[in-house]
Each structure stands twice: as structure tokens, then as C-alpha cells.
Amino acid sequence: MTTMRIASGLGLLLGLGLAAGQAQALEGDAERGQQAAGTCVACHQADGSGMNVSGGESWPRLAGLPAAYIAKQLHDFQAGRRENTTMMPFANMLDDQQIADVAVYYSEMPVTEAQGGEDADEALLARGEQLALRGDWDAYIVSCKSCHGPGNEGAGGTFPGIASQHAGYIETQLRAWQAGERSNDPQNLMGAIAKRMGDEDIRAVSAWLANQSVASE
Amino acid sequence: MKLRRTTLAVASATLAAGISVAAWAEYETLAEMGYPAPKEGELVHVPPTMADLEEADIHPELKKVIRRGYDLFTNTQQLRGENVFNDMNCSSCHLGEGRQPFSAPVWPAAVTLPDFRGKNQHVNNLEERIAGCFAYSMNGTPPAYGSDDMLALSAYHQWLATGAPMYPDQPIYGRGFPAPERPEELSYENGEALYVENCAVCHSEDGSGLYEDGEYVFPAPWGDGSNNWGAGIVRTHTAAGFIKNNMPLGQPLSLSDQEAWDIAYYMTRQERPQDPRYTESVEQVLEQFGPTFHKHSSYGQVREVDGHRLADHENWGEKGDEIKPWNVGVPRFEDLEE
Questions:
Q1: Residue A28 carries which DSSP code?
Q2: Which residues of B59-86 are buried (b: 16+ CB within 10 A; e: fewer)?
Q3: Contact at CB, A192 and B250, closer than 8 angstroms
Q4: Which of A91, B102, B220, B334 could be cross-linked to B209 through a Cys-Cys bond (beta carbons 3.0 to 4.6 Å apart)?
Q5: From CA A74, how far away is CA A90, in angstroms rounded?
Q6: How far apart are CA B298 and CA B290, in angstroms?
Q7: Among A140, A191, A142, CA closest to B101
Q8: End-to-end CA, chain A
Q9: What is the pLDDT of residues A103-151, one digit of tens each?
């Protein structure tokens, strides 16, 4: 049942890609993905853990993210739907098959621990927990969990796990959405919420999510 | 006390007073998002939050019970197989933990009941109203009146109404799922296309919602995981009101009235478990409820696109034909004198 639903989500995603003139329906292979990921490890690390760079550009954890999500981001970097000067040249090195392969390769890795937000105080973490699990409806900020799934560990192929993601990366992305610099989410689902978040909300939720451990299956 | 200040009747005189402005400020975000501001004479109430509960000067035992009610309201799936036989939580439809205006906030039930209810033609109290949700929206059977779970749910509703007047004689701001104006024509085809474009990313093209590790993320708008044919939201205008005011999640009021109605029309012309008031046939249900409740639904109608007659089946969903909601079709107060 779960597999079927994820498959139908994937089909939809691919359908969207098709509409945007993207190649699709390529089946990824983790072993080939490992070969193709040679250039990724410098930043995203061999175990897919990425790195939190405080005060700089943090590299996201890819380990355990949905393959469909990773593939979509790579296609979006190539097509300019998601912009990042560091990532752009690397995304352009991959062909469609390699994208499918590295996506599967990273999706199969166990989720690693995140960094950042270690110095967050109790009040900030409490605010972060509220936003992540219950939201703040008076400001029309729906909870992270309502899309990112149980434990914020991701839902289907569209909504990536954000628990145990680096605080620096989450912060940067939420700010990018606020500023309109990132807008490759389906139907502005993330953008609409990010724009209602205050600076402290962003720091709070990033710190709290980075502090969550995700048990490997 | 702080909580009492959050309720007011809007009148030009009171709006001028600082106290009213403070209460209204809590809903300013809504007005900025395009929801209507309260009309003169409307009752505006901002329900307390769970954080307020911690601070509240009430007995610790009551706090525990209200917390239990909140937990049941937001994770009703813990009653799966006992009282709930689909994939819904109370908070699937009553967004914002039952506090949100224009998302059928639940506190009005605590201050307007007991009252006569057209749906079952007798006077209902809060527990009976909640029981109705279990029979229809949760496709299940309610916890017993007076049981711990029922008391906890009632306590949560009543807590949310803290400070609101009992039996208010004013209309309530943001009550229910107010429907946008019904367009001249409704289009199933347009609704389907809009659903695929705007809704399917979360709710799936086949309407089954989205699950992760067996846990519900997005509720099923139709099918066995959804509410049955007796739930309020099978009425097209109620569905349109829900969609217009609440969907896509985080972007209320972003669809046009026509779009909201077309999606509602498409969604309410899909199959779902049978109405528990069905005892013999679609004709029997239509004879009893066709002129009233089902006047606004697609129950028993033939779907143009494939000739399928809606609700013409004995599929009861996960509860099967053994479990019957004990509260359905039970009359009350029959011996009272006029």
C-alpha cells in the first residue's frame, strides 16, 4: 500500500517534470550512483552527511532523502529553477541517468546526525518544537510536520525529511524562500509559510530540527 | 482575566475601546490574508491555546483531562479500530487544532448546545454532537456518553470556549466553513483538472491521501480512508467552503470561487463508505433525507462521466457490516408534552 502510494507520487512528480520538458522515467541504480557521486563527496561527504558551516554556506545532508526529491532538485539546478552558484556546475556535470543513479544512491544511506543550533537556549528550542510539531496558527504558520511527515522525517517523494538536517542549511533555505530566491517547491507550499516566519522563528525551527535524531531502520 | 478579554461583540462603540482592539489584534493576520473582518454585531472569540492552559488557574486534574482531549482531537487515529474506521483525525478538517476561524472552529458547539439539530431532528448536547462526527466523519462508532474519552473531548471543546458567552444572541465570526457564492455552472471536468493540478501532490490522484510509515500525513478526500456519505462535508457547499477557506494548506483563499466549487463538485462525486442511515437502499435514504441533508450532496445521483450511480453500494469501509454506530437513528424526548 505504502509502496503504491509513493509510486503514484513519483509518477506525478515525473509527470510535472515531463510538463517542464524534463527527461523522466529513468530507473536509478545505487552502484552506478556511487560512481557518479565522485564529485559530490567533497561537500556532501562519503556518508552523505554534508556539513554545517557556521557563518558560511552549509552543505545539506543528502543521506536518506527521497530519491525523487534529490532528482528533482538536480534537474531544477540544471534548468535554473533552483539557483545556487556552488551547486550549479556540479549538477550540470550529471546526465539524466546519473541524476537518477545518485538520487537512489543517497536515498539509501542511513540518516546521519546534524550540526548547528548547539547553543540554542531552552526558549528558542521550545519555539522551534512548537513550529515543527504544532505550528502557530495565529500567524497562519502550519506545522512542519503537517507536510514533512511523522517526526519530520519526510513524506512520499515530494516532502524531504528535515529532522536531523543541518541548522545552517535549513536557515539558509527558509531565508531564500522568504526572499523569493528559492521557489521550486510544488505550488509554493513552503514559500507561503516561510514568508510568514520571523527571524527568530527560522532560527528556532532550524536549531530544533538539527537537534533531532532520526533512528535508522 | 486575560482570557475574558479575547471575547467581544463587535460594535462601533466597543471597537473604539482599547480592550476590543487588543482582542481583534489576534486575528489581524487573518484580515491581512484576505478573510473578512468581523461585521458589526458579530461575536469574536479567540480561543485559548494549549500554552494558555499551562498558565490557567484551574484544577490540575482538569488540565490533564483537557490535554487528553487535545491529544484525542489531534491524534484521533489512536482510536482506530475501536471508534474510528477511516484515516481521519478531528484536526483533518478542523484545522489549527479546532481553534481556526473559517475552518469550523469547534468552540461554538460548546456555547450553542444543547439545541435542536435538523440532522437528527431532536435536541443534542455537546457529547451527542461529537458522537455524530464519529458516526459520519470518522466512519466509526462513538465512545460512550460519559466515557473518559468523550468527557476529555468535551472538556477540550469547552476549554476552547473559555470566556465566550453561553447561548450568544449574535452571529459568530468565522463559524463553520462559509461557502463562497455558488457559480452558475459547476464543472466536473474542470474540477478534476484543478484537483490534479492543485491537490493531488498531497492527497494523491486517486484521493487516498498520503501515508508515511503507516502514519497519516494528508487525509483522503474520498474512498474508504475518508468520511462516509453521511458526513457534513459531502454537501458540495460545505466542501467548497472548506476548500476556499483552507486549501491548499497554508494558502487559503488562493483559489477562485469557481475553482473551489468545481474541485468540491469533483471531490463530492467520488465514492466513499455508505451513509450509516442506509438500511435498505439508496431510495430509502433519499426518501428520508433527500429533501433535507442530501439535497446538497450528490448522493444517489448518476455521474455523467461514467454513468456510475453514486452511493449505490453496501460498502461500509473498514468497519464492515458488523459495526453499526449506536447513536444513529435513535430518537429522543418522544414523550414530552408540547
A1: P
A2: eeeebebbbbbbebbbebbebbeebbbb
A3: yes
A4: B220
A5: 9
A6: 10
A7: A140
A8: 19
A9: 999 999 999 999 999 999 999 999 999 999 999 999 999 999 999 999 9
- Pairwise CA distance, residues B19 & B266, whole Å: 45
- The C-alpha angle B89, B93, B98, rounded to 5 degrees, equals 85
The whole-angstrom separation of Cα A128 and Cα A28 is: 36
Residue whose cell numbers read 521557489: A183
Q: Which residues of A touch B (CB under 8 A)?
A: 1-2, 5, 8-9, 12, 134-135, 137-140, 142, 146-147, 149-150, 153-156, 158-159, 186-189, 192-193, 196
d(C-alpha A198, C-alpha A206), whole Å: 12
B 188-207 residues with CB < 8 A to A: 198, 200-202, 204-206
**CA dist., res. A68 & res. A54, Å (int):** 29
Whether B251 and A1 lie within 8 Å, measured CB to CB: no
Tell me the C-alpha distance between B88 and B96, whole Å: 15
Q: Which cell is A139 given?
A: 500567524
Alpha helices in chain A (DSSP H): 2-19, 30-36, 41-44, 67-79, 87-92, 96-107, 122-133, 145-148, 167-178, 189-194, 199-210
B205: nearest CB among A8, A156, A196: A8
Using a CB-CB cut-off of 8 Å, the residues of chain B touching A159 are 217
Question: Rounded to a whole number, what is the distance in angstroms from the first to the last CA of chain B?
Answer: 43
A153-205: pLDDT as tens digits: 999 999 999 999 999 999 999 999 999 999 999 999 999 999 999 999 999 99
Does residue B31 belong to the interface with chain A, where contact is any CB pair within 8 Å? no
Is the CB of residue B272 less than 8 Å from the CB of residue B226? yes
Q: Within a 10 A sphere around the Cβ of B310, how many other Cβ atoms? A: 20
pLDDT digits (tens, 9 = 90+) for B275-312: 999 999 999 999 999 999 999 999 999 999 999 999 99
